[in-house]
Description:
alpha+beta, Alpha-Beta Plaits, ten-stranded mixed sheet, about 40% helix, tRNA processing, tRNA pseudouridine(55) synthase activity
Amino acid sequence: MAANKVLEGVFAINKPFGMSSAQVIRDCQEYFNPSAVFAPLIEQERALRDKESRYQKHRRGKAKQAIRVKMGHGGTLDPLATGVLILGVGRGTKSLQNFLACTKTYETVVLFGASTDTYDRTGRIIKKGRYDEVTREAAEKALEGFRGKIRQMPPLYSALKMEGKPLYEYAREGKPIPREIETRDVEVAELDLVEWYEPGTHNHRWPTEEAEPAEKNLVDSVWRVAKQQAATAEELSKLTPEQREEEARALAEYNSKKREAEERVDSLVSDEQQQQEQQPPAKKRKKTKEGRAEPMMSGALGNLPPKGRGSDLVPPPPAPDTPPPWEGNGPPAAKIRMTVTSGFYVRSLCHDLGEKLGCGAMMAELSRTRQGQFVLGGDNCMEYDELLKGEDVWGSKVRRMLELWNNPDAKASETKNDQAAAAPTNTGEARRADQQSKDAQADKPVDEGKAVQEEKATRESEPAKNEKAAESATGPERTSVEQAKEEEEKAAAAAMAA
């Protein structure tokens, strides 16, 4: 790919723990904006800006006047989660919508024995349960009910409203939930328990903070209603169109608030870049003549940008020597791998599994290992830490990933070319081996008399072979004809002799 070619497309990055999806974008922009790799894209955008009318420039606003690499993501990941985060660059952002509906593969660690209001280890404990009899066999049997097409209740407690009032207000006021909560259709294509952690063999911990009694009562009522609900069309039809519309609005609001909590902003504006623009000139990064930040030294090990609002959003896992919040060895845990459709909540699966086992459970870890054709550790997914190693490292990686996106057949073509490149070598070796064999035969002394005799014997043996083959082909009928002919010849010879 030419060095001055505009690079656009889609690739993936391994999102670190504790960081929002938007913060990953801001960090990438921090490296991409001043780079030589994306200089043609920046220049292209600058040329387009120059052609804008005064009205268009005014509408853009001062906050968006700075030219930067346009980026977006194809589906957010919780700060608690790591793994595949699909990123679009330039016109590649228009393709990101396609990845919201594709299948995804996750690996999660379920910690048994307690449930939280957020369904994961970052929330507050709602209730605890006995886990003495929770075994791998029991968990695998319980998972059977979650495969295929199922109906799942989203983690509603955090933000959803009912009849215009957030659920947490019902908790504070001690009022019951006015009606049923509708579940959603999802599909689990694959679901496997891949690793089992016996009590005392892992470092996963429950949170130490517990929810208030009113909140516990509310969540208890939500779960009780969920258990009573049957996922049949007849019961779902009890909801009026207005109630269904409210459910849809509530879920949309939940997802919106969820993104705000994770990303803190719902835009692609780099907060850190804005902060730098507001700093005194002496504190700004050194600029080149082109107005871009001076790139890192070749091969130098750089530092990450200053941490933005989307960093360190969740506490790290407890240290191994942290005293556990239980007596004895504590509860077991399990690693589960699943491939699911869009709209599936992994934390809800963890919570529902604990409810089914009667002990409670929460999500302790989460990693997205695949989304669509993007696979963790694959050719189209880079490691976040590669940004630290400078443009000499991440530049070639990003170029390659965007090339694969724009030309999916490039890898297959390269494989064929590699095979073709290896073929002349193999052919040459075969020819050399054949020539060496001929040379070896030529070096041997030849007995001409013996060779002539062998050739004569071969010629004489051919008719016999042919006759034998013909005899085998015709069978007994051929033999009787020959006998009759032989008798006639003997009779003729006897007559001549007389």
